[in-house]
Write a structure and sequence with these properties.
The chain is elongated and about 70 Å long. It contains 9 helices and 11 strands. By secondary structure, the chain is of the alpha+beta class. The strands form 2 sheets. Strands 1, 4, 5, 8, 9 and 10 form a 6-stranded mixed beta sheet that branches. A 5-stranded mixed beta sheet has the order 3-2-11-6-7. α2 crosses α6. The site of the ligand Nc1nc2c(c(=O)[nH]1)N[C@H]1C(S)=C(S)[C@@H](COP(=O)(O)O)O[C@H]1N2 has 20 residues, from loops. The ligand Nc1nc2c(c(=O)[nH]1)N[C@H]1C(S)=C(S)[C@@H](COP(=O)(O)O)O[C@H]1N2 binds next to loops.
Length: 331
């Protein structure tokens, strides 16, 4: 069976890698159950497809006349990436040397991209052929895909039976942490600023409010903070909706709302969401800690953690569409 390994194995691996990369980003973007399930299941199936092709690829590798250092690096990165993905699902969230399984997973995937591009340049002659689209080949591909799908379902079943971390993860794949365990998390390079909570003011489309004034207008808001590094936490935030803080007429005329941190970190939201975006000053009845956004942070239920701008200094109304920004923060 493995003797047929060759160009088509490589093509299938490439298609799976590209698909897994794309669905990985979709899974990061999804915050609500349906899109999150579609993205994470597709991502899992594609990842499992890569694992299943390992025996075929081993034959291809064994037949190769020479193996470069770059190819070994690529292989190593992809194997670590896959391994970390399985650890994330079946072991759960945790830190080893300050890194969570997802961070290893995404980090190795990103580093692998340029290495893969180099690999493809060296093996250009392996491109697709017309016959790859013959009915027979498509049928074979379909059977392979269905087999992987069944394999995925079986793995999910095993996970559910074992009842461990895999069974308890939510649609986005995240694992539960208690409200008291919320770790201070940054997206990439942001630093916790030192702020004077008493003197801090938030500029709300031109008018300023102190944290104490915000607290006075707040109420308890239950929301789930779901970080893309593999954990989520349900908590009660002391928060006030942006719709009650921004001038109604100007809010109605605006297209988007930009929420800006003292650090420069920022996210843009559709103006129509002003009723479901909140400024919070406390969580579980206690003032925010410096690491988790004190004195004022955004609470954005149904959106992944990277939207929950911490250390908010300004909320700005804008005529630009909400999508006019990098899909993920760059800092
Ligand atoms: N200013 C700023 N806000 C930020 C971030 C950041 O890096 N800078 N990280 C975001 C990410 S990725 C998450 S998951 C949450 C984490 O909030 P926490 O520190 O309370 O866990 O904050 C978000 N808000
Ligand atoms: Mo995050």
């Amino acid at each position: 069976m493995f003797r047929r390994a060759g160009r088509r194995t490589n093509l299938a691996l490439l298609a799976l890698l590209v698909g897994a990369f794309g669905t990985g980003w979709l899974a990061f973007a999804a915050g609500t159950p349906v899109p999150a399930t579609l993205a994470t299941v597709a991502h899992g199936v594609l990842g499992l497809g890569l694992v299943v092709l390992i025996p075929w690829k081993s034959v291809v590798v064994r037949r190769a006349p020479a193996i470069t250092m770059a190819s070994c690096t690529l292989l190593g990165l992809i194997l670590i990436c896959l391994g970390a993905g399985f650890v994330e699902v079946f072991v759960g969230y945790g830190l080893v040397w300050g890194l969570s399984p997802i961070q290893v997973h995404v980090g190795t995937a990103l580093v692998a991209v340029p290495v893969l591009v180099g690999h493809l340049m060296r093996h250009r002659r392996q491109g697709p052929r017309r016959t790859d689209l013959s009915r027979r080949r498509l049928l074979q591909t379909g059977i392979f895909a269905a087999g992987i799908g069944v394999g995925y379902a079986v793995l999910e079943g095993v996970g559910a039976l074992l009842g461990g971390a895999a069974a308890r993860r939510i649609a986005t794949g995240s694992h539960r942490l208690g409200a008291a365990e919320i770790p201070a998390t940054t997206w990439l390079f942001d630093r916790i600023p030192t702020l004077d909570a008493g003197g801090h003011r938030v500029d709300l489309a031109g008018s300023e409010l102190s944290a104490a004034e915000l607290t006075a207008r707040s109420r308890p808001v239950a929301a789930r903070l779901d970080c893309t590094s593999g954990w989520y936490a349900e908590a009660i935030w002391t928060a006030v909706p942006l719709a009650e803080l921004l001038p109604t007429d100007r809010l109605q005329a605006a297209v988007s709302i930009e929420v800006i941190s003292v650090t420069g970190y920022r996210r843009r939201f559709p103006a129509a969401e002003a009723g479901v975006l909140f400024l919070a000053t406390a969580v579980q009845g206690r003032s925010l800690s410096p690491g988790t956004g004190a004195p004022v942070r955004l609470v954005a239920p149904y959106r992944r953690g990277f939207w929950w701008v911490k250390w908010v200094s300004e909320v700005r109304l804008s005529g630009r569409p909400a999508w006019a920004q990098s899909p993920f923060p760059l800092q």
